[in-house]
Request: fold
Amino acid sequence: MLRATYILSSLAVLSAVRGQGVGTYQTETHPKLSWQTCTRSGCTTNSAGTVALDANWRWTHVTGNYTNCYTGNTWNTTICKDNAECAKNCVLEGANYQSTYGITTSGNALTLKFVTKGENTNIGSRVYLMASDSRYQMFNLMNKEFTFDVDVSQLPCGLNGALYFVQMDADGGMAKSSNNKAGAKYGTGYCDSQCPRDIKYIDGEANAVGWTASPNDTNAGLGNYGTCCSEMDIWEANSISTAYTPHPCKTQNSGGQQRCTGQQCNVPDRYGGLCDPDGCDFNSFRMGEKNFYGPGKTVNSNKKITVVTQFLTNNNSTSGTLTEIRRIYVQDGKVIPNSKSNFPNLFPAQDSITDKFCDDAKKGFGDATSFQKNGGLQQMGAGLAKGHVLVLSIWDDHTANMLWLDSNYPTDGDASKPGIARGTCSTSSGAPKDVEANSPNAQVIFSNIKFGDIGTTYSA
Reply:
């Protein structure tokens, strides 16, 4: 799957930024979100769970006054002539989660609204599950199972309600970056397998020097630096299509967060950097089963869906080697096994992600083998064993209009060729200006998060 780099829009005036100090104009209070840990003896509720908004959405301004450090898609070059000094001069503010960002929680449910209009207009959001007020919740998925409920019925073509894991630092990078005084409490330290360069602050420094404003996004741009780490996409979806995808990296600490520049960030060679940008995806529609997922289909996206993902190891232990990532759905009291790939002339039918599946699909579709070159499932598992942070987001795509998820992609490919068709959306759909104008009330609801031993987090 050719997956687009996250280029995320935020406030038109209170501009999206990853600052490093802490402001005093808005108290930061994390919305509560309970979740459960499960064993053979049953499930225990963690009622202390909360979520924190990513720093890239927050207002950043000069310490002690209201002067913006970043406005629209450009830096204040008077303040930010130097990356390190910029980080020291600028602070992050707390967030008004509901009125500004459209983020609400109720018990074990999190609702992320797409467009929120108040004094300013906010587009999308990204939040992290917290273990405490200042640390992210870390998950070791090896030989474990992760389950959640999701409602994507209000997500049309061009949108993505995503739940995934990335190998961020638990403290948001505070320990290794002396300039970072905000930390996980204020959503700092993001990274993923796209090595995104739209992040405003990385490793305690601004990304201002060399920043180029986006030609099609009034709130975003690209800096000289990116931030890489391994990524496990549990759920990338709208009401039309869904995919789950591991992305291994050969960064420090078996896939841990690492600042990149130039070719390390997969620029100009998409496949010559520190991470696998494509991943090994399982999208049922792309795998030839076009009636499995979607409105009114076997897994009916008009209704709430329970999504189960199992991480199997060679010796059934957390210290083993990752050998398989298996998907199960539950809906209307019925357990629904994942669909199987359906290209009998290309490769055998398979219903989970294994190294053999990835080899067969990459060869059959003629895709680049960056997944294998970056270590495949073994490297993915090595990263997962170090602990990953849970990310939940809603976003539109200024790079490829989300066509890689829900339409024919690349758009000049023959839709009858295996691997090109990924969903029923038109190749003219998904343009952010259209989605934002026509579907401002879109939303995704994640709920009932459970993590535990294999076979303990769901039932029919």
Residues 1-19 have pLDDT under 50 and may be disordered.
